[in-house]
Write a structure and sequence with these properties.
Length: about 375
Amino acid sequence: MRHICYITGTRADFGLITSTLRLIQADPRFKLSIVVTGMHLAPEFGLTVREIEAEGFEILGHVPCEVANADGAQMARNIGVMLQGFTDLLLLNRPDIVLLLGDRGEMLAGALAGVHLGIPVVHIHGGERSGTVDEPVRHAISKLSHLHLTATAAARERLIRMGEQPELITVVGAPGLDGLDAFAGRSRDELCNQEGLDAARRLALLVFHPVLQEADCAGAQIRLIAQQLLDSDYQVLALMPNADSGSLDVRMALQEFADIGNFVIKTHLPRQEFVAWMAIVDLMIGNSSSGIIEAASFGTPVINLGTRQNMRERNSNVLDVPVEAGALRVALSSVPMRLASPYQNVYGDGKAGEKIVHYLAGVSLTQGLLNKCNAY
């Protein structure tokens, strides 16, 4: 029985991988455990560790760190805190595989711990571009990882050009696409009634996270976006940001709109509810990867703002716009048409979890795998 240990730090990564983790847990070939850190343990971000507990997954341990008002320096310190905590847990429990997803500091700390302890590290969503601090962190995780499960063929080719061994890179698609249809059954009327919104009026889902290099202007950016949406006669369902540098300013700016009747703010939405809203809104706007990856499966038009998802592969539902009043005003007056269904999403066919489980069960974990070197 292979022991797979997944490290999670945010509602975002856990939401994307949950269906895959369920498949791993249900498979008698595996033992699954979870290491929980970051936003999951913070009440101000929804204390989402409860969702992990509700799934019945074995939690190997909690690694708390300061996320409430993190700046760039604190984000860097947190990597050190998490590295120490992960190392202690992995050393004590010695899983067969450390499983990681994405590009955050939690995953970088997990990769560092795994590679130094001689535990094979499997990275999902490597090889993608984003253009901000997320990109070098993602590539650093890839260079530390022993095995790669990419979302697209282009990401696989980029990893090969980065010097990773081609035979150790497999395209599985994006796990966040798995099971989306099951979450999309709720009607627009039902969801809008739940939040006091008018189903007959235009509705936007706003998810905007601060960018480290632009943290000083994050509050002004979200204030501009929110006002432009209201001026364009959109009702807004807004989700609070991740715990990154500048997030406090975003949270405070959003609260300025809290008393407006057609502007609803949520600290956190469970994955199934978030997806249900994504499926029925007229527009998704902000800089979340869910707009780049998942929204196309519903045909939902997306206005992607700023640099956070810069250079990432896009579907045809995405319109890229700078965070500037004039450009945003024009974009909101000419939102892309909803894509026809079914739509062939560049990020896969919604069966990534099955492919990941098959891969984890069959991949050879030889001692030679741990001896990483560039292919050239």
